[in-house]
Amino acid sequence: MSRPIPRAFGARAQRAAQPPALAHVFSLLKLIIPLAPTCLLISCAVQGPPLPPRVERPEQIKDLAVAQKGRTFELSFAVPTLATDGERLTKPLEIEIYRTVTPRGAAAAPFPETAAPAVVLKPDDLRGFTFDKEVIYPFELSEKEYSNSLGEDYAFAVRGLTYGFRHRALEGQLSIVTRATLLDVSGPVENLRVRTTEKAIEVTWSPPAESLSGRPITGLSGYAVYRSDSGKKGSFELRTVASAPASSDTDFAFDHSYYYKVQAQFQGDHSAAESAGSPAVEITPRDVFPPAAPREVRAIYAAGAVQIVWSPSSAPDLAGYNVLRREDGGQETKINKELVRTPVFRDTGVEAGKRYFYSITAQDLSGNVSAPSEAAQVETR
Q1: In CATH, what number does 190-283 get?
Q2: Distance CA 209, CA 189 (A)
Q3: Considering the domain 298-379 in this protein, what is its CATH number?
Q4: What share of the chain is helix, strand, coil (3-state, %, to 5)?
């Protein structure tokens, strides 16, 4: 006779009677079913149609500048960093340089955008011509082309280039077209010299004698003086334009190295140019210039001591003063142990009934000592 199963244990008993694999499936379903709505939401957020690959077409170069320096046209512009979509470029960048030449007297033709580039700067080449995020490329003319093309109009344009899917070229828009007329300039200036004075670095050079074509100099308008702290290419900055072959640079610091170079400037009817740069000359100015001698020294004897006063020095790098004393007929000696900071000194080491002579020297921060001042005399009575 079988015993009835209590109702409270019926479901548990039925599950226990099921095969183990089936029981495992039921357990998984209990976990998955409550999470189904969440999984559907996550799935909808992640999935979607694939996005097309980004097209990194470089932005247009808008700051192209061209300057003739000797037989070279120097092109300069900022390195493109953005694509036309406003995002940063991530692909290797190339630069294409285009050039056209218009004969003398002919009207300039529209720039041929479909022409082949005259120069292509690959990524490795581009790095060699980039200085502080600026490309400086020297487009050099041969001696023959220079001589045969004087007075002709040169036009330049550049654009950036990357490569996309299947190595398809992605060319940026052509830059503004910049023109320059080829002028007959001189060679580099010669005999460049620099020397230090107390208040300036003096730069001198010899004026050019003839042009690169061997003709007499014409159109010389001045001299551009450039300075650099390192002497590296691309680091020289224009300091001044001199009308004569000499210049003074007053904005300098002692014990700091500088490099100078000079280029002759030429002016044509519609264009300007410079000679090639002279070899750079380095100088490290040293302060070997003593202050001026102090003036108006006075000595007064009172209460067993001599009070010496004088006019203060105007030297900007003054460190202090020295007080020199000698007795009548004796040797001059320095009587201060440390530099005197103010223009007054009290000498208590005197004896009554004698005559003393006092002079003052000024000393700067570099240790340069001035000549002694005129002596002031006093009698201790």
Answers
A1: 2.60.40.10
A2: 9
A3: 2.60.40.10
A4: 15, 40, 45
Class of domain 65-181: mainly beta
Helix/strand/coil for 152? coil
Give Cβ neighbours of residue 179 (< 8 Å, ≥ 6 apart): 66, 108, 153, 154, 155, 156
SS (H, E, C) 247-313: EEECCCCCCCCEEEEEEEEEECCCCEEECCCCCCEEECCCCCCCCCCCCCCEEEEECCEEEEECCCC
Q: Torsions phi, psi of 43, nearest 5?
A: -65, -40
Q: Please tell me if the domain spanning 65-181 has the same topology as the one spanning 190-283.
A: yes
What does 78-139 look like in DSSP terms, one character per residue?
EPP-BBTTSSBP-SPPEEEEEEEEE-TTSPPPPP-TTSPPSEEE-HHHHHHTEETTEEEEEE
Question: Could you tell me if 170 and 162 are in contact, meaning their C-beta atoms sit under 8 angstroms apart?
Answer: yes
Cα distances from 128 to residues 58, 125, 235, in angstroms, run: 20, 5, 14
pTM: 0.73
Half-sphere exposure of 111 (CA within 13 A, CB side): 19
Each residue's pLDDT tens digit, 367-377: 999 999 999 99
- Which tens digits make up the pLDDT trace of 244-275? 999 999 999 999 999 999 999 999 988 899 99
| 179 touches 108 (CB < 8 A) | yes
Locate 59 and state its tokens.
């932005």
What pairing do the DSSP bridges indicate for beta strands 178-181 and 153-163? antiparallel
Q: How far apart are the first and last CA of the chain?
A: 152
Instruction: List 154's β-bridge partners, or say none.
Output: 101, 180
pLDDT tier for residue 286 given thresholds of 50, 70 and 90: very high
Give per-residue pLDDT as tens, 288-302. 999 999 999 999 999
Per-domain residue ranges of the chain: 65-181, 190-283, 298-379
| Helix (H), strand (E) counts: the chain | 4, 24
Tokens of 252: 């300098």
CA distance 223 to 246: 9
